[in-house]
Design a protein that fits this description.
One of its GO terms (molecular function) is oxidoreductase activity. The chain is α/β, with parallel strands linked by helices. It has helices spanning about 15-25, 40-50, 60-65, 80-90, 105-115, 130-140, 170-190, 285-300, 310-330, 335-344, and strands spanning about 5-10, 30-35, 55, 70-75, 95, 120-125, 150-155, 200-205, 210-220, 225-230, 240-245, 250, 265-270, 275-280. It contains ten helices and 14 strands. The structure holds NADP nicotinamide-adenine-dinucleotide phosphate.
Length: about 350
């Protein structure tokens, strides 16, 4: 059983690992204890910069260190499955970068390993732990917008030359954010923790590297709730999110997937009286520290998952992303009954 402070090990030394290192140091119940890199020099430099007591010239050594309680997997997408399975086998709790893995079958394999070894595991969709998300859930479940008829989301960023090209693409790297938020809020609208689409159809643009650069997705949920999502990884930053209900609409002014401490606002427009209300949500800590705190707290409590991003939620998300990618790769859509079978 872990004790305060929970000791963290980091795999990978890129910019996102540096962000996580800072967040771990900001968490009062966590300690940044070890880092692993493929190169001793890189590990040493990273450890020096972030004041980390242990550094290793191989990722596995972090898993072999008995002092490490939780491992943050900050490796490229195509390596997530392997390292989730390895972490679980080593008895380490896990925070794995998004996308959790790159295929639904790999998600099942990884989660089965986590289950078998009884470790905590969470996908690092960090925005889920920010107070803005609780506020959005509260608004949707209060029915102030009436019956939800449409979610409309766009997430674009020019990251194609920055992101690892192996198993990359707009859908996995960016589409995971709006898809996960819509599934969450479609659930809130129905008094559930999440909802899965009954039908999915999509179109997209695939590059010569076979990664998708742009994809648009239509989802149909229970009660005729529709959702439209567009993600692109070679177009300038654009983050839009709106919810259309029968009594009112809600539109994010700030980026819902990168909330900060102060500027997290949305506007609710009430159709009947024409009233417009602006709501701003502030946060006490940085976005990534909320996530680290959530993981450490659950590990201390002996929990195997965090309901801000549960395992079932990760599986549902992966199912949509996988279907979206497959439809775009084929240039066709599977028959409805095939989708229903895959979601079941
Ligand atoms: N949550 C967020 O805000 C956010 C932002 C950006 C990225 N991400 C996610 O973070 C993950 C890493 O993304 P990234 O762009 O940082 O990837 P990356 O730079 O390609 O790789 C991350 C680290 O993994 C190690 N690595 C790279 N290639 C490897 C290989 N072939 N075999 C073993 N280790 C390898 C490297 O560390 P060493 O050389 O030290 O071993 C590298 O620094 C992705 O899953 C991405 O989706 C999340």
């Amino acid at each position: 059983m872990a004790r305060v402070p929970v000791k963290w090990g980091i795999l990978g030394t890129s910019m996102i690992s540096a962000t996580m290192a800072k967040a771990i140091r900001e968490s009062s119940i966590s300690e940044l204890y070890a880092v692993g890199s493929r190169s001793l020099k890189t590990a040493m430099d990273f450890a020096h910069t972030h004041n980390i007591p242990r550094h290793y010239s191989c990722h596995q050594d972090v898993l072999d260190d008995p002092e490490v309680d939780v491992v943050y997997i900050g490796l490229p997408n195509h390596l997530h499955k392997e390292w989730i399975v390895r972490c679980a086998a080593s008895g380490k709790h896990i925070l794995c970068e998004k996308p959790f893995v790159t295929r639904i079958d790999d998600a099942r394999t990884a989660l089965a390993a986590v289950q078998t070894h009884g470790v905590f595991c969470m996908e690092a969709l960090m925005y889920r732990c920010h107070p803005l998300i609780n506020k959005l859930k509260e608004v949707v479940s209060s029915h102030v917008l009436g019956k939800i008829t449409l979610f409309n989301a766009v997430y674009m960023a020019d990251i194609v030359d920055l992101a690892n090209p192996v198993e990359g693409g707009a859908i996995l790297n960016l589409g995971c954010y709006p898809v996960s938020l819509i599934r969450l809020l479609a659930g809130s609208a129905q008094g559930k923790s999440m909802a899965e689409p009954l039908e999915i159809t999509s179109l997209g643009r695939v590059s010569t590297t076979r990664n998708d650069n742009q994809g648009s997705l239509l989802m149909k949920f229970e009660n005729d709730m529709l959702a439209m999502v567009t993600a692109a990884d070679d177009i300038s930053m654009c983050a839009r999110f709106e919810i259309i209900g029968t009594k009112g609409s809600l539109r994010l002014i700030s980026n819902p997937w990168l909330p900060d401490r102060t500027e997290n606002s949305f506007i609710i427009h009430h159709y009947q009286n024409g009233e417009t209300v602006k709501i701003n949500v502030t946060a006490e800590r940085s976005l990534y520290t909320y996530q680290i705190d959530a993981v450490s707290r659950h590990v201390l409590d002996g929990a195997d998952q965090c309901m801000s991003m549960s395992r079932q939620d990760t599986l549902g998300n992966m199912m949509v992303l996988d279907t979206w990618r497959q439809q775009i790769a084929r240039g066709t859509q599977p028959a409805d009954n095939q989708i229903m079978e895959r979601i079941a």
